[in-house]
């Protein structure tokens, strides 16, 4: 279960405005990837291009041998069934209760009987911890519950790929920790490929197997979590450590004067690499690796204090 997404030389613009160009990366089957980037760099556009809602100017998105950037509409319709998408605001129908919202894709895309629909809806509600709320309207529950309801709906068609657009935006830190644990547990349980767009650095540092960073109209870096968390590349380093010093300014890039002004400032040391968040359900991650394995295999010395079990603060445990 879980399929790979192979993105090659993908370029997208709207009219004359280039959003990003020449993006090449492979999202491995069954793993969790996080995509980061300053606001407006085209992360949501990237997700929409992956499901074929937006057409790229150039390049390909290969899923199970089909290039969804160029395939006919009918094939695209089939491929889309592999996806579950959690939109930023949950995208629930306001006048339908949670039960009907979650049942919607099943009634729309399958020939299941109402009793079969009921079984699936209840199973997914249970999975996200929302049993007993099925009669509530989306407006009657909290933001965190709406996210989980959105997640339940994204899962009803048993997706091979789940895309999350800022699942943690607007959540308090405790709920973000619970949601992150739920995401890691689900990934281990259903074995689908997960791609998460987030602005939460703690999520990015602890949840994924791989991290990508979109910056200044291109993919600055994509690779294993440990590679980016030990990287000295200025943009990656600045973003993943939420620092002011570095090439990224308040509005896109800093200019030469701004950069010169901070040239004598010493960069703070890289913080330790935290342990990866482990599934709490006893099922290992598909990509389970020993902490520090990437660093060791690649001759990289991780920052002092990395992979210390006592760093429970940053693992959200
Ligand atoms: N359908 C569209 N038509 C024209 N321009 C668009 C369209 N969708 C997005 N854009 C533009 O593409 C750029 C990237 O938008 P996008 O929503 O992908 O950013 P983002 O990285 O998701 O930002 P944020 O972190 O704030 O969510 C923006 O400049 C936006 O105005
Ligand atoms: Mg967005």
SSE order and pairing:
Layout: E1 5-14, E2 17-27, E3 32-36, H1 43-50, E4 58-63, E5 66-67, H2 73-80, E6 83-86, H3 98-109, H4 114-127, H5 143-155, E7 161-165, H6 173-190, E8 193-197, H7 201-206, E9 210-215, E10 218-224, H8 225-229, H9 234-240, H10 256-261, H11 293-297, H12 312-315
Parallel strand pairs: 3-8, 3-9, 6-7, 7-8
Antiparallel strand pairs: 1-2, 1-4, 4-5, 9-10
The protein binds adenosine-5'-triphosphate (ATP) and magnesium ion.
Tell me the total number of β-strands. Answer: 10
Question: Regions with pLDDT < 50 over 5+ consecutive residues?
Answer: 312-317
The major sheet is characterized as: 6 strands, mixed
Q: Compute the average pLDDT.
A: 90
Hey, roughly how much beta strand do the residues contain? Answer: 15-25%
Oligomer: single chain
Instruction: Give the helix level as a range of percent.
Output: 25-40%
Separation of the first and last Cα atoms: 28 Å
> What coarse outline follows from CA principal-axis ratios?
globular
Bound molecules: adenosine-5'-triphosphate, magnesium ion
By DSSP (H or I, 4+ residues per run), the number of helices equals 12
Strands of the biggest beta sheet: in what spatial order? 6-7-8-3-9-10
Radius of gyration: 20 Å
């Amino acid at each position: 279960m879980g399929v790979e997404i192979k993105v090659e030389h993908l370029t997208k613009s709207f009219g004359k405005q280039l959003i990003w160009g020449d993006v090449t990366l492979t999202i491995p089957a069954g793993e969790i990837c996080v995509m980061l980037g300053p606001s407006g760099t085209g992360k949501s556009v990237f997700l929409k291009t992956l499901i074929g809602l937006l057409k790229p100017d150039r390049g390909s998105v290969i899923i199970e041998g089909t290039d969804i950037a160029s395939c006919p509409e009918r094939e695209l319709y089939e491929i889309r069934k592999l996806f579950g998408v959690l939109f930023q605001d949950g995208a629930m129908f306001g006048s339908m209760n949670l039960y009907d919202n979650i049942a919607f894709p099943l009634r729309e895309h399958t020939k299941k009987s109402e009793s079969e629909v009921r079984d699936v809806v209840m199973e997914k509600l249970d999975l996200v911890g929302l049993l007993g709320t099925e009669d509530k309207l989306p407006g009657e529950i909290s933001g965190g519950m709406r996210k989980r309801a959105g997640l339940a709906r994204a899962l009803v068609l048993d997706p091979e790929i789940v895309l999350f657009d800022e699942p943690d935006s607007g959540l308090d830190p405790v709920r973000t920790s619970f949601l992150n644990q739920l995401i890691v547990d689900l990934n281990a349980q259903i074995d689908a490929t997960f791609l998460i767009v987030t602005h939460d650095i703690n999520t990015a540092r602890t949840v994924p197997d791989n991290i990508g960073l979109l910056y200044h109209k291109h993919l600055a870096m994509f690779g294993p979590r440990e590679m980016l968390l030990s990287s000295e590349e200025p943009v990656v380093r600045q973003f993943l450590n939420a620092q002011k010093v570095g090439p990224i300014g308040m509005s896109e890039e800093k200019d030469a004067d701004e950069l010169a002004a901070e040239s004598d400032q010493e960069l703070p040391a890289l913080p330790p690499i935290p342990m990866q968040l482990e599934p709490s359900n006893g099922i290992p991650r598909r990509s389970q690796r020993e902490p520090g394995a990437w660093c060791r295999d690649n001759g990289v010395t991780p920052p002092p204090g990395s992979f210390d079990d006592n760093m429970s603060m940053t693992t959200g445990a």
